[in-house]
């Protein structure tokens, strides 16, 4: 009876938003569940903003931004990703084109096509859907794209400028994580952050932006104290770093890597990992790096998989395309 009375008191002081994140344990006590960071909603907001900005851009007399997506091979997942990017571009008012090649084409042929697009005055952004066939050098292909049209942010010039905290085109997934943090009102200044995963396209750029001084040129800095963990970080150390972190970002593709016992109560947990698995019933589903069902009971905020970082990646690709178009403004012919 006493427990029920206490629960009623708690219920009266919780706001409606807080109640939506509250659950009752079997003993009758109330706990606050994590806030769900809804990547779909945030991404929709970003695309809606871009749509208005691009409409204004066109009213000023400039042609709509244009994006060219190149895909090599017949991987179903890659084709789905490209389709979603094209649909997002169309929604925002970006002219998008998909160029498909068989996996049998040569690297030289692909490089020649990229050169042609680099020199085109009607193409603002170029996206090479990865991975490319094993017969090609991925780094060479990424570097073939003009850094000014590199909406993926993978060219060595863009990567180098990011490391120097200069204004540049930032890898979309990393930028999506940072934008999600900022728009969700998560404090980073002086906080401890752990990034699990050191890939050059995701983990590294996320860590760079988290630790950088906000006063620098890019304005992307978040002034956190960052620890980077990876496959050679001992398990005990990984747990220790995570247990002391205010923010955890995992991008490894290892299902269930981040457990509830690794989370400091109230911490923010962002799951960039995405893996397709087969469950006990033989059904396939997408899961992240985080043990979501348990972590949600401890964390202060957490992203779902799917529906978290994925939509943000697509939205930030659109952002990068518009940025590329504006950067090439002097080469854009006004419509008379």
Strand order of the largest sheet: 3-13-10-9-7-8
Q: Roughly what percent helix?
A: 25-40%
Oligomer: single chain
Order of helices and strands: HHEEEHEHEHEHHHEHEHEEEEHEH
**C-alpha termini separation:** 77 Å
Number of helical runs? 12
Q: Which word captures the global form?
A: globular
Secondary structure: number of strands: 13
Q: Which class of secondary structure composition applies to the elements? A: alpha/beta
Could you characterize what this model shows?
40% of the residues lie in helices and 16% in strands. The chain is built from 12 helices and 13 strands. It has a 6-stranded parallel β-sheet, with helices on both faces. Helix 4 (76-92) links the parallel strand 4 (66-72) and strand 5 (95-101). Helix 8 packs across helix 9. The protein starts with a helix and ends in a 9-residue tail after the last helix.
